[in-house]
């Protein structure tokens, strides 16, 4: 539909806009199903052909969200990230680049589930109950991943924004972190950086190159093999390669096949093997990103072709250890903490607390939860084991770091450490987990330490672990507590899991419903590979029985 003009805005009353929103829904974006859909771990996600009306309504909601934030820009990202290519999804980004506020997730769920005929009434009730000032402007920033379904879904989002007369900046095909970055830049009037895709590339690469005038150091070699998951990460990396020049040589793989198919960060993490389509070489650093480039996993094969994975836990420990050293060297008294989820390998948590002496917090899955907890620290490092995470610095910490870099009362080495901390901050996309920013951060730390990937891997040994998925009739029958480490329902399931776990040395296992796929996830770790695989299978088997499994039953490990 045509974009609104200023005249339209003045002429149409609020009531007319509600009825226009309803009529566009009925004529162009009718509701496709009565099955309830919820705003999950990372927005709405399902098969792409079920999403048109949801996209339209999220366009409407983005306008209301911007109005309640006095016209601040709100991001809309069309992506299903790690999910298979036929899926798609949408998530909203709040003004400071953070995920949508939890209370509005419920509003979003309500809005997409009402009938078309009730849509105008629902919009009215949101506006009235939230006290939204209709006269406020509304600005949105929209991006999409490379899925074939994304252009049509974008049109639905734009129709939703237009129906309520919102303004839109369409970034085209970009990663999720770029949408978060641009939203933050616009709303900070440029204080966070230049509000464009090009501004993003430049900020990260300038900071990265500044931190390593010489590309080599000790065992560190400036070369990586990059698995782009056949998605937007590969497109972005091409631009990074031009700007990085010799400071980091990047060999590209998986640029244009089926998205996330046998490659990408989720495949490598869950399957515990290299992405397909890559030419491996002993000890070469390989990185895999996911479908919207907000997660990253490192891996390599050794001289015996044995696969080694360095996941989000490893990145978190590497980064937290380095930041702690810089803090000590600069004499800055800042509170550093690390946030993980139940998926964090038991060895990583032990290493962080016992060797690094950095406090650890645990939250439910979903970067929104980790981010929320991380901002309680002056410097909060948060990572999910699946490679999703970043570092956040409080405003006070940023100010103290900047001041220390120029404080004449400090020694030269203290000032240098504070200056380095300030430059490291610029490589980090603090707004959200960002695969490429995280990669540049890891490369910065490895370079500073003069480490090869094997040196990094030697810090501690992961407990063998296994993740499985179980399909059940209704995954909401599984509910959890204690940061998803224990399940509450179905009755009796946790007691069975406890019994199974108690039989395995260093055993740990949990189950939780996925917020992005129609499955219940199982995680198990134990002292040996065989024990971890066996425990995961046994837990999947009891889950299948207690939670109404459908389709093929879990099969014992070979
Ligand atoms: C999303 C979330 C992550 C979460 C992942 C899996 O990642 O942003 O925080 O770990 O889903 O969630 P679940 O286990 O609930 O399906 P992505 O990369 O797919 O957006």
Explained architecture:
By secondary structure, this protein is α/β, with parallel strands linked by helices. Helix content is 42%, strand content 17%. The strands form 5 sheets. The protein has a 5-stranded mixed β-sheet, with helices on both faces. Strands 7-6-8-9-10 form a 5-stranded mixed β-sheet, sandwiched between helices. Helix 11 (312-330) packs across helix 16 (435-449). The longest helix has 19 residues, at 312-330. The chain binds 1,6-di-O-phosphono-alpha-D-glucopyranose.
Helix content: 40-55%
Q: Ligands bound here?
A: 1,6-di-O-phosphono-alpha-D-glucopyranose
**CATH class group of the domain at 6-173:** Alpha Beta
Rg of Cα set: 24 Å
Beta strand % = 15-25%
Architecture of the domain at 6-173, according to CATH? 3-Layer(aba) Sandwich
- Envelope shape: globular
Give a brief description.
The chain has helices spanning 6-11, 14-28, 52-68, 102-113, 119-130, 150-163, 176-187, 197-210, 232-244, 265-271, 312-330, 346-356, 367-374, 395-404, 412-427, 435-449, 453-457, 493-502, 529-546, and strands spanning 44-47, 73-78, 87-93, 139-144, 167-173, 223-227, 249-253, 286-289, 296-301, 307-310, 336-340, 360-362, 379-383, 389-393, 465-470, 479-481, 486-489, 508-513, 520-525. It is α/β, with parallel strands linked by helices. Among the domains are: 6-173, 3-Layer(aba) Sandwich (Alpha-D-Glucose-1,6-Bisphosphate, Chain A, domain 3), CATH 3.40.120; 312-425, 3-Layer(aba) Sandwich (Alpha-D-Glucose-1,6-Bisphosphate, Chain A, domain 3); 465-547, 2-Layer Sandwich (TATA-Binding Protein).
């Amino acid at each position: 539909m045509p974009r609104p003009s200023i005249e339209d805005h003045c002429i149409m009353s609020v009531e007319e806009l509600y009825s226009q929103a309803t009529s566009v829904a009925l004529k162009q974006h009718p509701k496709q199903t009565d099955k309830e859909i919820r705003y999950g771990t990372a927005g709405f996600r399902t098969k792409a052909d079920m999403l048109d009306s949801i996209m339209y309504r999220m366009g409407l909601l983005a306008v209301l969200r911007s109005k309640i934030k006095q016209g601040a820009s709100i991001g809309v990202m069309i992506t299903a990230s790690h999910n298979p290519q036929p899926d798609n999804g949408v998530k909203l980004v709040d003004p400071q680049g953070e995920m949508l506020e939890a209370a509005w997730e419920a509003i979003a769920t309500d809005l997409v589930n009402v009938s078309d005929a009730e849509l105008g009434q629902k919009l009215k009730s949101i506006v009235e109950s939230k006290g939204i000032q209709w006269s406020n402007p509304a600005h949105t920033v929209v991006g999409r991943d490379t899925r074939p379904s994304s252009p049509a879904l974008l049109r639905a989002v734009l129709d939703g924004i237009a129906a309520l007369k919102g303004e839109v900046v369409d970034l085209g095909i970009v990663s999720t972190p770029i949408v978060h970055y641009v939203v933050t830049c616009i709303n900070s009037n440029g204080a966070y950086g230049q509000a464009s895709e090009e501004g993003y590339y430049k900020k990260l690469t300038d900071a990265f190159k500044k931190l390593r005038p010489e590309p080599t150091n000790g065992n560190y070699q400036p070369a990586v093999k990059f698995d782009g998951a056949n998605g937007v990460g590969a497109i972005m990396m091409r631009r990074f390669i031009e700007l990085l020049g010799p400071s980091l040589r990047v060999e590209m793989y998986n640029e244009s096949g089926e998205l996330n198919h046998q490659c990408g960060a989720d495949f490598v993490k869950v399957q515990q093997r290299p992405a397909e389509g890559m030419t491996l070489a002993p000890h070469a650093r390989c990185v895999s990103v996911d479908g919207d480039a907000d997660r990253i996993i490192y891996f390599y094969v050794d001289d015996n072709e044995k696969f080694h994975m360095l996941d989000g836990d490893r990145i978190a420990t590497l980064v937290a250890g380095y930041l702690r050293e810089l803090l000590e060297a600069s004499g800055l008294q800042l509170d550093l903490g690390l946030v993980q989820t139940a998926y964090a390998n038991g060895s990583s948590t032990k290493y962080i607390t016992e060797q690094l002496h950095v406090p650890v917090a645990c939250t439910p899955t979903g970067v929104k939860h980790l981010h929320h907890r991380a901002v309680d620290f002056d410097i909060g490092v948060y990572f999910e084991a699946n490679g999703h995470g970043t570092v956040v610095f409080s405003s006070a910490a940023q100010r103290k770091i900047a001041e220390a870099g120029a404080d004449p009362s400090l020694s030269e080495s203290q000032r240098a450490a504070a200056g380095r901390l300030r430059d490291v901050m610029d490589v980090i996309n603090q707004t959200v987990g960002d695969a490429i920013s995280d990669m540049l951060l890891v490369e910065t730390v490895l370079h500073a330490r003069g480490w090869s990937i094997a040196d990094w891997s030697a810090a501690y040994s992961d407990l063998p672990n296994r993740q499985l998925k179980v399909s059940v009739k209704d995954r909401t029958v599984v509910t959890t507590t204690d940061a998803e480490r224990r399940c509450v329902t179905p009755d009796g399931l946790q007691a069975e899991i406890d019994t199974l776990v108690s039989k395995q040395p260093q055993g740990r296992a949990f189950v939780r419903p996925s917020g992005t796929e129609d499955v219940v996830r199982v995680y198990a770790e134990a002292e040996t590979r065989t024990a971890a695989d066996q425990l995961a299978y046994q837990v999947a088997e009891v889950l299948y029985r207690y939670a109404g499994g459908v389709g093929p039953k879990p099969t014992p490990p070979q």
